[in-house]
Amino acid sequence: MTAPRIVHGAAALVAGGSLAATLWSGLDDRGVALAFGVLITVGELTRWSGAPARQAAPLGTAGSLSYALLGPDAGHPTLHDAPQVVTVVLAASLLGGVPHIWCGRTPTLDHLARRVLTVGFAAVCFQPLSSRGVFRSWSGPAYALLLVSLLLLTALCDAVLAAALARSRTRWPFGPLLREELQGLLGIGSAVCATGVVMALGVAVAGLWALPVFCLPLLLTQLSVRRYAAVRATYRQTIASLARATEIAGYTPAGHARRVAALSLAVGRDLGLTGGELTVLEYAALMHDIGQLSLVDPVPGGATAGLPVAEQRRIALLGGAVVRQTGVAPAVAVMVERQADGYREQPVAARIIRVVNAYEEKARDAGPEGPLRALEELRLGTADDYAPEVVESLARVLAQPRAWRQSAPEAADGRRTALSDPARGWVTHG
């Protein structure tokens, strides 16, 4: 049984059991439940479609966790239990997702399953002990530290779930995926946890009026993250447009840079690269042929893999000089410059670009057997020219087109490159 089935099945059992228990015992503290339900619904309505799960609905996540860790309300004990928390959170999340479903942006089952399981975990850890008065004597920093510790543990569980789901769907290594999820907690994830704790503490002292006051900073943070993402998207589109200069000038075939970048990202994922390493790899792969613009006579077909090593290095150095003039991060220029070096001296990103570029050049326009022949040539060249571990990673990626498609970056013109069967070669889908 795969990880998604296990996670979805567990979430369904938790949700069904919680709903049954709530219907049996009735809804306690209805005003509190309504207030948090509205907050979570608003958070889902402002959900950022297309963003990573940890950035998509921070207000809804913070409200859900705050409700799970809510003790007193303005000094008065609350009566809601863990099943009620799960029921309210699930109902509010589904209600807030209706407009997205209507517009075709359906919330994924993974998102709902993770929300149910993480909120259920936090509520089970806190609510039974809180209802028995175990934390009644806790006050000040000790109580706040308790809530923070529970939220950190909950966030860790959520990161494990997210990494396991991604591993099952993409076959990428679990360790780097988990590391990437944990790194994400240092950004918007920390703001979500902090807001959840502050809202729970604020309601305990000031009542439900604390909710709109303390959720405002997170809304502003969400807006800032969206603007930053928009800037990065524009930046990437600029790089992609610059990379197409070699195609427009006739130095390289159409779509070559996009295909190399997409497949390089998939290989980088398979080798365990994450975060900024993947960004540098993508930008360098998009601009790896830009040095050909300095050539008086174009290389036939733009195929630099068959040129003498000295000529390859000259073109790579010319490309690095061009990249440095564009204001792109220096690390990108370094990868472009070193793609023609011996693989034993190359950084990992440069090794990947060298192998993928050679594969794409050897495989294209070579008939049905082109990709297989190209891969065999790369394997024969692992003694001197190509890193063996990168070639084997490329072979694994070619055998998993689904994982490759999920790594493929969006092109500047809105199209996505994709891989069909390895024996058939590359295809471009509009």
Offer a quick outline of the entry.
This protein is an all-alpha fold. The chain is 69% helix and 2% strand.
Task: Give the percentage of residues in beta strands.
Answer: under 5%
What structural category arises from helix and sheet content? mainly alpha
Q: If strands are numbered along the chain, what order do they take across the biggest sheet? A: 1-2
Q: What is the helix/strand order?
A: HHHHHHHHHHHHHHHHHHEE
Helical amount: 55-70%
Compute the separation of the termini in Å.
35 Å
Low-confidence stretches: 406-430
Mean pLDDT across the residues is 83
Total of helices: 18
Features:
430 residues; two-stranded antiparallel ribbon; 2 strands
Task: Provide a descriptive summary of the structure in words.
The protein has 430 residues and is mostly helical. The chain has 18 helices and 2 strands. It has a two-stranded antiparallel ribbon. Helix 4 packs parallel to helix 6, helix 12 crosses helix 15 and helix 15 packs across helix 16. The longest helix is centred in the middle third of the chain and has 34 residues. The two termini are 35 Å apart. The C terminus is likely disordered.
Explain the layout of strands and helices.
Layout: H1 3-25, H2 30-45, H3 53-56, H4 58-68, H5 82-102, H6 109-131, H7 141-170, H8 174-206, H9 210-243, H10 245-248, H11 256-270, H12 275-286, H13 309-325, H14 330-337, H15 348-363, H16 370-380, H17 388-398, H18 401-407, E1 416-419, E2 426-429
Antiparallel strand pairs: 1-2
